[in-house]
Design brief:
- By secondary structure, this protein is α/β, with parallel strands linked by helices.
- The protein has 17 helices and 13 strands.
- The strands form 3 sheets. The protein has a 6-stranded mixed sheet, sandwiched between helices.
- It starts with a helix and ends with a helix.
- 51% of the residues are buried.
- The structure holds pyridoxal-5'-phosphate and zinc ion.
Length: 466
């Protein structure tokens, strides 16, 4: 049997259940327009008896597919033959136990872990999904790929295009909404970059139209293959914990691709009998982009076994349009008001007994400073997971004894403006970058010390402040 007989695409709505082949390029169910999953005929596939079997791949790491933090788990995302899978060396990440962040969040020492996805080649978790989307794109002989992006998807797409030479990249960004760290990557890697007068939600709508008109392969997270790659973030977390699931996974929520992928990963591992317990999930929105929080926590919207009240979603979006609400947060990677994977995320919240919280930009930046000081640095959006953990501990929902994993989605150097503005002594700069976002103070600022160009004064300053 060929690979494509073992894997197929399937509508996420059980009452529809339409299927199509993995060799088709679709961003929506052909029957009802809902989202698609990649699904597998597991019975016909070679499966590991235990997750420990994956450890053997590391001994064969001179093979790029064993080195890859995505493809060494190929048997859990087998939609293409292994020899066709695209890798640039993604997924060499670290699960870091941070004492400083544990203390800040309020859990016992040794219980707080940071899954550091900033170590990926393009500096964010997006590479996990991009390796899978590129594999599918190669499978269907695509020559051009596009995405709308708050920055990291475009950086990742551009990197995969420049390294593999398999496709040409077309990137859509909203005007003035992308940090220089991310924009510089897309430009450096040589991607065609189209700047649209509008925000991310506008760019997302246009890229979908343009892709379908010109037959360009779309790599946004509506692409179900991307989420297959992102499942491996959880496999690596389990691996780092000796295959013992933690109690909590916390992740920032933007387009909700990660949270959706994590839910699918654990649902499949449980189905295959490879884990006995599923961790709980907390998805953390920025308060200025809190659609999921509003719908899940305030309106009680649930996956409901596959029949979510979709009318409530449409009504919410209509109200948002009427009120002219635009997403607004310093955490630009999650500055999204119409998350494309909303329904899949509701499913993940059901599978993982999840909760949703919102955190302010103040909480995000304070948490980010703590991550930088007591863990490994991250960009603002990533720190939402840590700020959310602190909240859930203070609410008594996360216990002080529980093992908590916060996913740090992107590298610290992605958005240096926010970091420098937080630590600055220049009140004007602080106000311009952060004050306008409602940030009032920088409780954990590490301020530069100004000294005259004089050796005695410098030595004095070192004694005084060191
Ligand atoms: C894309 C991105 C997010 C949002 O992830 P979703 O899967 O869209 O919810 C969060 N943080 C960073 C750094 C990102 O690049
Ligand atoms: Zn359908």
């Amino acid at each position: 049997m060929a690979q494509k007989d073992y894997a197929f695409q399937q509508c996420i709505i059980p009452a529809c259940g339409a299927t199509c082949g993995v060799d088709e390029v679709r961003v929506a169910c052909p029957r009802c327009g809902s989202l698609l999953d990649v699904a597998y005929a597991w019975d016909h596939l070679p499966l590991p008896r235990s997750l420990r079997e994956f450890e053997a791949a590391w001994a064969r790491r001179s093979d790029p597919h064993c080195f890859s933090g995505v493809w060494r788990f190929h048997r859990l995302l087998p939609f293409a033959p292994i020899e066709q899978c695209v890798t640039v060396g993604e997924g060499q990440t670290l699960l870091h136990a941070s004492e400083g962040v544990a203390k800040y969040v309020g859990v016992k020492p040794g219980r707080l872990f940071l899954q550091y996805e900033g170590m990926n080649p393009s500096g964010s978790f997006k590479d996990n999904g991009m390796s899978a989307a590129f594999t599918h794109a190669r499978f269907v002989n695509a020559t051009r790929a596009a995405c709308a992006s708050t920055g990291n998807t475009s950086a990742s797409l551009a990197l995969y295009c420049s390294v593999t030479r398999l496709m040409k990249a077309v990137i859509f960004i909203g005007s003035g909404k992308i940090s220089y760290g991310k924009l510089s990557q897309a430009l450096d890697y040589g991607a065609l970059t189209v700047q649209i007068a509008g925000d991310f939600d506008d760019a997302m709508a246009r890229v979908q139209e343009v892709s379908s008109q010109l037959g360009i392969y779309l790599v946004n997270s509506v692409n179900p293959f991307r989420l297959e790659g992102q499942k491996t973030i959880m496999f690596r977390v389990l691996e780092a914990l000796g295959w013992e699931p933690p109690d909590w996974i916390l992740v920032p929520g933007g387009n909700l691709g990660n949270s959706s992928a994590f839910g699918k990963a654990f649902q499949e591992l449980a189905l295959l009998g490879l884990i006995r317990r599923i961790p709980r999930l907390a998805v953390i929105n920025a308060a200025g982009a809190n659609t999921l929080y509003q719908l899940h926590e305030k309106q009680g919207l649930r996956w409901n076994g596959g029949s979510p009240a979709q009318d409530a979603v449409h009504a919410f979006y209509d109200d948002m349009t009427q009120a002219g609400n635009r997403a607004k947060t310093i955490a630009s990677a999650i500055e999204i008001n119409r998350p494309v994977n909303l329904l899949k995320c509701l499913r993940a919240l059901e599978v993982m007994d999840g909760v949703v919280r919102e955190v302010s930009d103040q909480e995000i930046l304070d948490a980010k400073a703590q991550v930088g000081a007591g863990g490994l640095g991250c960009e603002p959006a990533s720190a939402a997971s840590v700020a959310g953990a602190k909240r859930l501990v203070s609410e008594g929902i996360i216990g002080r004894d529980e093992r908590v994993v916060c996913v740090l989605t992107g590298h610290q150097l992605k958005d240096p403006d926010a970091t420098v503005a937080y630590h600055t002594t220049d009140q004007e700069l602080f106000n311009k970058v952060l004050g306008s976002r409602g940030v009032r103070r920088a409780a954990f600022a590490n301020r530069a010390v100004a000294v005259p160009n004089d050796i005695d004064e410098i030595i004095k300053a070192i004694h005084l402040y060191g």
